[in-house]
Design a protein that fits this description.
With 254 residues, the chain is α+β, with helices and mostly antiparallel strands. It is flat and about 60 Å long.
């Protein structure tokens, strides 16, 4: 009888260990990869009449397959946000489309000896059990007076793929405090005081009232907002950034 009880206890212990192993979450990790395409003939030396598409991006392991596939699409969309005809679902498709556009333009205007380029990167700001926050940046030139560039963010919950917003991180009622801090930081960055209107220096906020946008990412030290070119002013004013440290909103953190 005693032997039977011991065997039952061992079996139960083994079953419990098995359940723990089954429910244990896989560690989420990543490694950086790169992808590059060039137009026919390649881009060698200082050769101008060529096009290149280059991107560096993280490849994650340990995520649910559905979440991982969704994240790949989100990254492809983010680095191609500045393209008004953005309908691609992968870096490869985006790159092929870019090179094909160049080849088509070159065939139509063979005397124009101008090269194109597209450079993009997706970097990991935070990787934890509850949050993945990524920054997607791009820079491109396809002729004209100047190139273009932009910065965008992806924030999601690793186990579900659900987007993480300010409402998930901050307590209800945070808006006024965040707005005030954001405006203080913005005015410091453009070096104006309360006596100067935004319109006076070329910025185009609705009713000339500062407001934070929805283009933000989480870092280990605070929340980073980016206003991309043309979003609140002409190209000459460039992009603008507002950084709000967690220390200044610690009472609002959940």
């Amino acid at each position: 009888m005693r032997l039977l009880l011991i065997l039952v206890a061992v079996v139960c212990l083994f079953a419990e260990c098995s359940r723990k192993q089954e429910t244990k979450k896989a560690e989420v990790t990543f490694e950086m990869k790169s992808f590059r395409l060039e137009s026919m003939g390649g881009c060698k030396g200082d050769m101008m009449a060529c096009a290149s598409y280059t991107i560096e991006y993280p490849v994650f392991t340990g995520l649910d397959n559905v979440v991982n596939d969704s994240l790949k699409i989100k990254m492809a969309e983010a680095v191609d946000t500045d393209n008004p005809e953005n309908d691609t679902l992968s870096f490869e498709a985006t790159g092929r489309s870019f090179i094909e556009d160049y080849e088509s333009t070159k065939d139509e205007f063979p005397d124009v000896n101008i090269g194109w380029f597209y450079k993009a990167s997706v970097t990991v700001n935070i990787l934890s059990d509850t949050l993945i926050s990524l920054t997607a940046s791009n820079e491109s030139f396809t002729g004209g007076a100047h190139g273009s560039y932009g910065t965008y963010f992806i924030n999601l919950e690793p186990s579900t793929g659900k987007s993480i917003t300010l409402h998930d991180v901050l307590k209800p009622g945070y808006e006024d405090t965040l707005h005030k801090l954001g405006e203080e930081e913005f005015k410091k960055s453009v070096q104006i005081d309360d006596s100067t209107s935004y319109a006076d220096i070329g910025f185009e906020f609705p009713d000339d009232q500062f407001q934070l946008n929805d283009n933000y990412g989480f870092t280990n030290k605070g929340i980073r907002f980016v206003f991309n070119v043309y979003e609140i002013g002409p190209y000459a004013l460039g992009s603008r950034e507002v950084f709000i440290p967690y220390d200044k909103i610690k009472n609002w953190l959940k």
